[in-house]
Design a protein that fits this description.
The protein has 337 residues and is an alpha/beta fold. The protein has 2 domains: 277 residues, CofD-like domains (Rossmann fold); 48 residues, no CATH class. The protein is built from 12 helices and 14 strands. The strands form 4 sheets. Strands 5-2-1-9-10-13-14 form a 7-stranded parallel sheet. Strands 7-6-8 form a 3-stranded antiparallel sheet. Strand 3 and strand 4 form a beta hairpin. The longest helix has 22 residues. It is globular and about 60 Å long. It binds guanosine-5'-diphosphate and calcium ion. The site of calcium ion (CA) has 7 residues, from helix 2.
Length: 337
């Protein structure tokens, strides 16, 4: 069997590690190949190094090297290099980079500098984590750089001159500056994926969606993780066109994101923080949707909504959730004949 998933960072990674555990526990499913299409809209260049936070969270989590308590970064990491950078007055300091993590960014930047594509670099980094052996193929959504920017109010702007956005009191900051540096506190007015019009899906991305047996949407951020992957030209059409059932998991439980600031992201689109609003963002290709018990809502046309425990408290509960998503997908697949 071939399973393809679109994913952001922590929510996607924990779900997919659970999926792999669920598959590996069943000899009939263990041979299943999992292709993960990771969001690269969060990518940023810091200290001259290319950092791909979502790809790295996926790689470290699936490879067994993640810092579980943070959900990102390397377990047991230290901050010596970042401390030295601070001593030199080198900025920014709001983005945490561990010493072990720095090696990933240095290797990636070196190989990109030698002319390798991001997809090839990602595969090479993944070798160190045994992703192949674990039957996981990690693909960036695109080899071209895409960076998400967030439009926020600029209280310092000169409101006396009208015309351009900047003069109207708005400014755009890199997604990471808003999310990490500002804790997503300034209300987001809009998101722009800079570079998306010129981006093409990385090699293997469209095939993985079109030729999958099952497509899963982990409970990743619907706007700035999965939404960005879907906006790579061709990806959404492939999702609409695939014959595989598409099953998603709500990242929203009790009208709040389980972690992070998905509520602030949905608000920017004028949407409430509800599982139904998230399902609505996927309505043109979604077949099945898992929500928390008691949060069943009228399904968009053609979507089967099912209630299951949605909290990934540990690897076992994540495996159960992934198993539930897969079971729904296989049930929908069976029903299609
Ligand atoms: P990020 O890139 O690190 O922000 O990670 P993702 O985009 O992959 O996932 C973030 C989303 O995962 C957030 O909107 C969370 O609400 C959701 N999430 C995190 N943990 C859980 C969980 O245990 N269960 C569910 N259903 N969603 C979760
Ligand atoms: Ca992310």
């Amino acid at each position: 069997m071939r399973i393809t998933a679109l994913a952001g960072g922590v929510g996607g990674a924990r779900f997919l590690r659970g999926l792999r555990a669920h598959l590996d526990a069943d000899p009939a499913l263990a041979e299943t190949e999992v292709t993960v299409i990771g969001n690269t809209g969060d990518d940023i260049t810091l200290f001259g190094l290319r950092v791909c936070p979502d790809l790295d969270t996926l790689m470290y989590t699936l490879g067994g090297g993640i810092d579980e308590s943070q959900g990102w970064g390397r377990v047991g990491d230290t901050r010596t290099v970042q401390g030295e950078l601070a001593a030199y007055g080198a900025h920014p300091q709001w983005f945490g980079l561990g010493d072990l993590d720095f090696a990933t960014h240095i290797a990636r930047s070196q190989w990109l500098g030698n002319g390798m594509e991001l997809s090839a670099v990602t595969a090479r980094l993944g070798q160190r984590w045994g992703l192949d052996r674990r039957r996981v193929r990690l693909l960036p959504m695109s080899d071209e750089p895409v960076e998400t920017y967030v439009v926020i109010d600029d209280p310092t702007a000169d409101r006396s001159t009208k015309g351009t956005e900047a003069r109207a009191g708005l400014r755009a900051v890199h997604f990471q500056e808003w999310w990490v540096g500002m804790g997503a506190a300034p209300p987001a007015r809009a998101f722009h994926a800079v570079g998306i019009d010129l981006a093409t899906p990385a090699p293997g991305v469209l095939d993985a969606i079109r030729h999958a047996d099952v497509v899963l949407l982990p409970p990743s951020n619907p706007v700035v993780s999965i939404g960005i992957v879907l906006s790579v030209p061709g990806v959404r059409d492939a999702m609409r066109g695939t014959s595989a059932p598409v099953v998603g998991v709500s990242p929203i439980v009790s009208e709040a994101p389980v972690r992070g600031h998905a509520d602030a992201c949905l608000r920017a689109l004028g949407l409430p923080t509800t599982p139904a609003a998230v399902a609505g963002l996927y309505a043109d290709f979604l077949d099945g949707w898992l929500v928390a018990p008691g949060e069943e809502h009228p399904a968009p046309d053609g979507v089967t909504v099912a209630a299951r425990p949605l909290l990934m408290r540990d690897p076992d509960s994540a495996a159960r959730l992934a198993g539930d998503a897969l079971a729904l997908a296989l049930q929908l697949r069976g029903a299609r004949g």
